[in-house]
Design goal:
Length: about 290
């Protein structure tokens, strides 16, 4: 591109080396718009972050740019910048920004559209309602549930004391929103959590405690013997989930009961056969047994 003219040198008669110059003419060489580096897609972002696309192009006159989203022209605003430049930036991303982006490069002699570059925006995995601690009677079923949030698909992984659980035996729902532990045992008592994951990341719930309660059962002997005027001692015992409250009724004169230790002690001042009612209570149930004292 430039200005061109012709200069002629000639001889006329005895005059040598005469010069004449033509009028100048302008030559313009046009260069069609063309893309030399395509925008790159396959971007994965979390909502609230930013994403950028870029393109390189050549041409004469220098080309202009129009970025598009799903075929619609973009304009600069509070979240979009560079809609008419080589670099497009999207800030404060929302899931609605997921889609296809391209750019139209144009000059006076041609227009060319770039390849499509994709952007996927995900809401991170979250927990709306965490699993709650629970208490069950040994042998019954225990369940934990969680309500998750975030972009689908969401995956679940329940854990016991930080170790992943798997379906099988008494465990079901290890990878679902509802975990069931059937026919609970006292060894199932522990802390349970669930990890929620999606493409944008993962989150772990707070700990939900499982308490497995055992019914109370009196374990001391049903018979005892003593003598009038001789010191007597008997310990009432019970098994089950603590705390256990013990009681005794129908004691003969001279004997007393200590509920803290379960000990019946003293010196009987009467003789005969006595039916003493031993009772035990915990959070699950109550049990009783008659102690025959002779």
């Amino acid at each position: 591109t430039g200005y061109y003219f012709a200069r002629v040198t000639y001889n006329s008669g005895t005059t040598i080396g005469l010069i004449t110059v033509s009028l100048a003419v302008t030559l313009t060489v046009a260069d069609q718009a063309r893309i030399t580096a395509q925008p790159q897609g396959g971007l994965i972002r979390t909502a609230g972050t930013s994403a950028s696309f870029s393109v390189s192009a050549m041409g004469f006159p220098p080309p202009g740019y129009q970025w598009r989203f799903n075929g619609m022209n973009l304009v600069d605003n509070d979240r979009v910048s560079g809609a008419n430049g080589t670099n497009l930036t999207l800030s404060a991303l929302v899931t609605a920004d997921t889609g296809s982006y391209d750019v139209v490069v144009t000059n006076a002699y041609s227009s060319v559209t770039s390849q499509v570059a994709t952007l996927s925006v995900y809401l991170p995995a979250g927990i709306s309602v965490p699993p709650q601690s629970t208490a069950v009677i040994v042998g019954s079923n225990a369940t934990f549930t969680v309500t998750a949030s975030g972009s689908e698909p969401l995956s679940y992984r329940w854990q016991r004391s930080g170790t992943n659980l798997s379906d099988g035996g008494r465990i079901s729902g290890a990878t679902n929103a509802l975990l069931t532990i059937a026919a609970t045992r006292t060894s199932d008592a522990s802390g349970y959590t669930v990890v929620i994951s999606n493409t944008a990341g993962s989150v772990t719930s707070s700990v939900a405690t499982l308490t497995v309660l055992s019914p109370v059962r009196i374990t001391s002997a049903p018979n005892a013997s003593g003598k009038q005027g001789v010191f007597f001692s008997f310990t009432a015992t019970a098994a089950g989930t603590l705390p256990i409250a013990l009681g005794a009724a129908g004691l003969p004169a001279g004997l007393s009961f200590d509920p803290a230790t379960g000990v019946i002690a003293g010196t009987p001042i009467v003789s005969g056969t006595f039916l003493i009612l031993i009772g035990a209570t915990n959070l699950v149930n109550s049990d009783s047994q008659v102690l025959t004292l002779t």
